[in-house]
UniProtKB/TrEMBL annotation:
Residues 360-382 have a biased composition (Low complexity). One of its GO terms (biological process) is D-glucose transmembrane transport. This is Uncharacterized protein. InterPro entries: Std1/Mth1. It comes from the Eukaryota. Residues 355-382 are annotated as: Disordered.
Length: 435
């Protein structure tokens, strides 16, 4: 038994001789060093993970914000592809895009694509047949001169700036292949919904609407002021119907809705368009009326020049009917005195005497008439042609035909009535005095 225990002890001792047994103090020092290294490595790993987590979180936040900005600006994205920026797929702070500012834009992109916010629901939902395919009411199309051009200009009056424009309105360009592209210019005009009356009037007066018509400033200003005043009255009546106290209605600014805002622009456009059409028609009607007066005056002059004085030779001797009458009277006298022979003789002598006198007088008249005819013919050769003189004087007077003020006023009222009736307007002619 003791031998077996000794053998076990010897085996254990021999096995332990295969390892190096360091002193106790070295073992503790080594253990502490290993712990410090492990703790330091773990701290670095945690710090690195936290840093990566922060970078990842910040990058994700930037990407989400960029995506939200793109969604909120859908109108600008589809209107101009050049402003679209794509989100980077890798997480890097240097990949965040910078938004480009648009300084020029084509006319096609400048015009609105939808019009549902410019008109009241009552107009848009009343009858689909009264709308064009783009959603605009058919009353926005008027049979007036240069209407389409100036309707486009009116659509370029906007109420706010788009985000991709920055703080400035971009310029509008036309395709080079479009006719008269170099002669027609388009531009934006900013007219906010909360503009004052004075600013609205100034914007309308200085706009490009019918600028080719050269309407005087006074007329444009009067039309704009009347349009804005009418819109203000309607706006105030609407607020009163909604229960807004009169003392809370702002008298300096119009906080317009988009349909009210658009209605002001279209009413001003219609006023100056009708005025331009009436003035063009008035000018044409006056020219035609002057031409008619010239032709009428010329016809009267020609009729007057064609009148000729009839040829009547001076009387010489007794007419034949006088002798016949005297003869008849003598016959009556002789018949009443038929019983007297002396009266018959006297009658016969008287007839013979009168017969000789009549022949002599007839020959003398023929000679005098022939002489007078030759004299008149000779004098006519020395007299200038009065017909040619009248035509010459008429041609000199044709350019001097003028119209009286009453005639101009009647023509102006007639032109206005025709335009109003053609457009279906219940306006009344103002009988303006045109100088």
């Amino acid at each position: 038994m003791n031998g077996s225990y000794h053998n076990k002890t010897t085996m254990t001792t021999s096995n332990s001789t295969n390892f190096v047994n360091a002193p106790f103090e070295y073992s503790e020092r080594a253990r502490d060093t290993i712990k410090k290294k492990l703790l330091f490595s773990q701290k670095n790993t945690n710090a690195s993970n936290r840093k990566k987590s922060k970078i990842l979180s910040r990058t994700c936040s930037d990407d989400v914000a960029s995506a939200y900005s793109a969604i909120s600006n859908q109108s600008s994205i589809f209107s101009n592809p050049l402003t679209v920026t794509t989100t980077s797929s890798h997480f890097s702070s240097s990949s965040v895009p910078t938004e480009k500012i648009v300084t020029t834009i084509t006319l096609e992109d400048a015009l609105p694509k939808t019009f549902y916010d410019m008109y009241t629901p009552e107009i848009l939902m009343s009858n689909p047949l009264n709308l064009f395919h783009n959603g605009r009411p058919k009353f926005t199309k008027r049979e007036l001169m240069d209407w389409d051009l100036n309707d486009i200009r009116s659509l370029l009056i906007i109420d706010n700036l788009k985000p991709e424009w920055g703080d400035n309105l971009p310029s509008i360009t036309l395709p080079n292949n479009q006719p008269n592209a170099s002669n027609i210019n388009f531009r934006f005009q900013l007219l906010p919904l909360n503009s004052s009356d004075e600013f609205i009037i100034e914007t309308l007066v200085t706009s490009d609407l019918y600028k080719e018509a050269n309407l005087d400033y006074e007329f444009r200003f009067t039309s704009a002021r009347y349009t804005v005043a009418l819109a203000r009255r309607r706006h105030e009546q609407m607020l009163l119907q909604q229960g807004v106290p009169p003392n809370q209605i702002n008298k300096k600014e119009l906080h317009l809705s988009k349909p009210e805002w658009r209605n002001i622009i279209e009413n001003f456009l219609l006023n100056i368009a009708v005025e331009t059409q009436c003035r063009a028609d008035f000018k044409q009607q006056c020219s035609q009326f002057k031409k008619w007066k010239q032709e009428h005056h010329q016809q009267q002059m020609q009729n007057f020049s064609n009148l000729k004085k009839p040829h009547m030779p001076p009387p010489s001797g007794l007419p034949l009917y006088t002798i016949v009458e005297e003869d008849n009277s003598d016959e009556n006298m002789s018949s009443s005195k038929g019983r007297s022979s002396s009266s018959l003789l006297r009658k016969t002598l008287m007839k013979n005497l009168q017969s000789k006198t009549l022949k002599t007088s007839f020959n003398k008249n023929n000679t005098s008439s022939s002489n007078n005819t030759n004299t008149c013919n000779n004098n006519n050769n020395n007299i200038p042609d009065t017909h040619n003189i009248n035509n010459l004087n008429l041609n000199n007077k044709l350019g001097k035909i003028t119209l009286a003020k009453e005639e101009k006023a009647d023509i102006w009222a007639h032109c206005q009535s025709e335009v109003y009736q053609r457009l279906g307007l219940d306006w009344k002619p103002d009988r303006m005095s045109i100088g």
